[in-house]
Known about the structure:
By secondary structure, the chain is mainly alpha-helical. Helix content is 48%, strand content 3%. It has a two-stranded parallel ribbon with strand order 1-2.
Amino acid sequence: LEFASTTSEGxxxxxxxxxxxxxxxxxxxxxxxxxxxxxxxxxxxxxxxxEWPGVKIIHFHGPKxxxxxxxxxxxxKECHIHGYTPLVHWxxxxxxxxxxxxxxxxxxxxxxxxxDFLSQKCNQ
Length: 124
């Protein structure tokens, strides 16, 4: 936090810009590495290139729940947020929305499990 508060140049890519600036400093530059793709899979990439058990993290780069993710799940190629339409189009055209639908199913299951858990805890 000290680094962020004392850096006057700003961070053009928000949190990613902060991470890039922080870890490109001389004391970290030799320790930095790029994650394998399975640890940074984008919501609009083609799922035929990876097996699901191999994907560890889905990166909601661009479309996110409440911000055009639902359009991908519904296989709609438009998005009302400037700059996201190409990503949404790629997800629907190249991947047939497979990654987004799988992630949506997982999120729905997690939400249902969370609601059950909270219901049990609140009724104790």
